[in-house]
Each structure stands twice: as C-alpha cells, then as structure tokens.
Design brief:
The protein is of the alpha+beta class and 114 residues long. It has one domain: Regulator of K+ conductance, C-terminal domain (Alpha-Beta Plaits). It has two helices and five strands; from the N terminus they run αβββββα. The protein has a five-stranded antiparallel sheet. Strand 3 and strand 4 form a beta hairpin. The protein is globular. The termini are far apart.
Amino acid sequence: MEKIGVNAVVNPRMTTASAILRFIRRGKIISLTLLKEGEAEVIELIVNPHSKIINKPLKKANLPQNSIIGAIVRKDRVIIPHGNDIIQPEDKIIIFALSSDIKKIEKIFDGGEK
C-alpha cells in the first residue's frame, strides 16, 4: 500500500462507532478512539468545573484500576501526570481505559450534571 501513497488503514466500522460514542457519552468529549474492537477506549475530554476530581491529587481520584490518565493539557502545556498532579477546571485530559470502566470515569470527570 505504501507504493500507492497509503500509509494508514482506516476501519470504517470502528470510525463510525467512535463518532457515535463521542455524541452519546457524558461530558465534553473532544475525541474518542476504540481499541481492540471496542474492548478499551482512549478519550480526550475537557474536565467539568464541577467534577469530583478538581483540586485533588490524582492518587486520590478513585479512578478504576484499569484506567490511566496519559496526559493533561493545560493551556499550551502538556503534562505527563503523576500521583501528586492536580486536575484544574477546563484541563484537557487523555485517558486510557477499559470500556467497562467508562461510566465510572464519566461520573468522575463530568460532575454529575446528567
């Protein structure tokens, strides 16, 4: 495929599923990517100012065991977080999680508005 200038394969079914999930999920989701046929997800979201996680160290955030915050984007800065980092309102967060844990993650970051 590289001979014809193609360097990536797009799975239309997974792309469509990701787009649909982005609209039905809670909160301010910027992007969502499904991994391994939907078994896991990578979510980029904007943290709600009323979220339970605001102003708490990540180590006290009570995230599901099989999830991890891969990055925090604050203004123009990218932070690779550790347990003592604190989430601020309107931070952009990139989370890797099993699909079975998404509802709990949504509640933590959304602030319970829905």
